[in-house]
Design brief:
Helix content: 55-70%
Number of strands: 0
Oligomer: single chain
Number of helices: 9
Order of helices and strands: HHHHHHHHH
């Protein structure tokens, strides 16, 4: 007795491999049925089988709708059966989505990040006064800290003020102000302190039960 081995490379392509070859064969058989009544009955049975094979999708909205769409896709849109949902078309499936707009950040000072530019735009919308001046100095201090995170050395306030002028199109200018920004050492100290606190929380381990008992005995 001889057996003819059937290799996957010789079998028809499965359109949705997740459901397996047996479901694909059921779909092909359903397409070939002669009467609409038979196709409708078998199509509903196939959808039930597909639902049992994908139980994690039961909580997904329009679960049944997705299964019916997949049934038509697996039939290469050749199935003539009545669906409780609008039948999808091959053109809709092959239609390419519109390209998403990629966020552009044209500033040459990328190390400040997008949030700095957003804060500057907010400051530009405020009326002149003490609150706006305080906000602008807070932005400048944050810029200095960002610069130090990138440069990790030191920076002169004049550089930060110049960058602020550039990022605000010349509308926020602190170069003639008598007030100075926070000291570099203070900003670096805060950064190091935050890093140490994070490391301490990460490395802490709860004492073993035996260690706890030994302390009680002592």
């Amino acid at each position: 007795m001889t057996f003819d081995l059937e290799y996957n490379s010789e079998r028809p392509l499965m359109i949705i491999p997740e459901y397996g070859r047996h479901v694909q064969k059921l779909v092909n058989h359903c397409v070939a049925l002669e009467t609409i009544e038979e196709r409708n009955e078998m199509a509903k049975a196939i959808v039930d089988v597909m639902g049992n094979l994908q139980p994690h999708l039961r909580d997904v909205p329009d679960f049944k709708h997705k299964l019916w769409d997949q049934l038509y896709i697996m039939s290469d849109f050749k199935l003539d059966a009545k669906s409780p949902y609008p039948q999808p078309s091959k053109e809709e499936l092959q239609e390419k989505p519109e390209p998403l707009a990629y966020p552009k950040f044209a500033s040459k000072y990328r190390y400040y990040g997008k949030n700095i530019q957003t804060m500057i735009d907010v400051a530009l919308s405020w009326e002149e006064g003490e609150l706006k001046e305080a906000l602008v100095f807070s932005i400048a201090n944050h810029m200095k800290k960002c610069y130090l995170n990138w440069n990790k050395d030191t920076v002169d306030d004049a550089i930060i003020f110049k960058h602020l002028v550039d990022l605000s199109d010349g509308k926020l200018d602190l170069r003639n102000s008598d007030e100075e920004l926070s000291e570099t050492k203070d900003l670096l100290k805060k950064r190091n302190t935050q890093g140490q606190n994070t490391a301490t929380k990460t490395s802490y381990k709860k004492p073993h039960n035996n260690q706890h008992k030994n302390r009680k005995r002592q």
